[in-house]
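Problem: given the chain below (340 residues), write out its structure.
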Amino acid sequence: MKYRILLIFVLISLDLSAQKIKDTLFLLNGSKIVGEIKRIKLGVITFDPDDANDITVQLQKLRSIAALLKVYRIETTGHQVYFGKLVPSNPAGYTSIISGTDTFRIPIELISLLYPFRDYFRQRFSGSTSVGFDYTRSSGIARLNFNGTVNYRAKKEEISFTVSGIYTITDSSFSRDREDVSIKNNYYFNTTWFGTVFLKTQRNLELGLLRRFQEGFGGGNKFITNKHIYAWTRCGIVLNQEENTENTRSGTLSELFSQVEFNYFRFTKPELSLYTAETFYYSLSQKGRFRNDLQINLSWEMVKDLDLTLSGYVNFDSQPTAANSRKLDIGTVFGLTFTF
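Solution.
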């Protein structure tokens, strides 16, 4: 079987040497689509056919795949990770990965994530940006919200930079009501376990918080990766330096934290994605203090790379930094999100 696969690989390579190399999808109905693979994510392949716009195809409809132009990073629902090129394989529903001198034959439906693994630094980036705005003439008050994310992925590292803010604008003032800026680095020891370090700054006037600087570290596990769901958890220790709206500073405070993140994707019409992150903090420096941050984002793809997003957040602090501040802050935000 191994020699047969290698023979197929050689024949395809010779056939493509005289023409421009193209990726090929072989469908169960006998059709063949030539173009370029963009990615596989959670049960769906995004493909750029020749002379047509991008299409999406469910993996269960594929007979096999050929992709020899690039080296791909391939992650399966069983937490295996491969780096290689793809050649067609039998029976229907299988493809083979050529990785160096090794060959691996896997069911296509077990691929949870695939993307080109390029050596060029800038091509390892992805991200999104969203903005929302509302204004009522009767009150003369406008609300602006902004959210942006940039991700970098290497062989064993994931780096994420996120920024968000909610601002109130009147004829005579501009208020920075709520802001979050963070950078996080996950280093994977294997396909599921990782170490994490992060830096974060926060502002929440509703809770009496002028600014909070946060440094944290810990470990985590990616415990669900299937066609529609990604989920992981992490825990560790954070150090905080806080300043309240009365300009009183706290010094350095330590907390234990635990976090669960859950992502659900549906790539059939309507295309939806749901993201939730629940983070709990327990203070080691202040007796009886605990905090909880909840973030929920629901997105609907209206057109390619443009989503309508509804976000909600809940922030709770049992001992707010300012004595007369509220303990609970809740909000919802509508916006348009562009992904890249």
